[in-house]
Design a protein that fits this description.
- The chain has 11 helices and 6 strands.
- It has 277 residues and is an alpha/beta fold.
- The chain has a domain of 144 residues: Rossmann fold.
- It has a 6-stranded mixed sheet.
- β5, α5 and β6 form a beta-alpha-beta unit.
- α4 crosses α5.
- The protein is globular, with a radius of gyration of 20 Å.
- The relative contact order is 0.14.
- The C terminus is likely disordered.
Length: 277
Amino acid sequence: MLRRIAAIFLIGFLALAYQAIHPPPPRTCGSSPEGPLITGPRIKLRDGRHIAYKEHGVPREEAKKKIVFLHGFGSSRHDAVIATHLPQGLVEELGVYIVSFDRPGYGESDPDPNRTVKSLALDVEELADKLGMGAKFYVMGFSMGGQAVWGCLKFIPHRLAGATLMTPVVNYWWHNLPLNMTTKAYYKQPKHDQWALRVAHYFPWLTYWWFTQEWFPSSSVVQRNPAVFSNQDLSIVSKFLINRQQQTRENFMNSTRRLNSQTGKSLLHIKIISKYL
């Protein structure tokens, strides 16, 4: 009798554990009852998925430089900082065309359950081809968007005119980085951020659970904790946090999160990248 009770409890525990570590199925934009509405242009990719995009700067046909911008964690195509935070008229003066897009699982882009570092780079290439950006174009990644730039450098270097990383997320275990530098930078982070990276690196199957559990602090970025910023960062950020701008940001941040985003998978890509570069 005791063995049967123990077996029932074990089965129940395993069922709860499985549910805790596996994200719910994604909600496809425009076709799922609970999914967000389609509000902007999208392209259809080779595998039937859709990618939402937004254009900035001069018309493509008149552009001297064409850039694909990749947004960061918990953001969307609307947060193309190089198009929205430069002095007014500079982009037009330089003749730059910029296209930002919702990475798979963000905003109004369909999730990609089989996403890899390579597939995301191929999505960038196909987006550029569908929009007629020519044989070569530039890529620019902001924060976690930088991991997609690494993928582009690895898998589609023949299509790139140049690549830029803006405050990219770092893989502290990348063997090509100086150990003394990565160790020092790693331990400058808050303790809970160190643990978040350890979980993603050593126990990737626990990543979803770690970032959704409420027992321990998971990540400064996920919780929007200013502890992640340096004093210099805070002095700059404070200039942008006026009410109207903050409300606008909240609107599209909430829109971004209506989909079951694949941010946990993005964290895994930081580890996977080290295998390729």
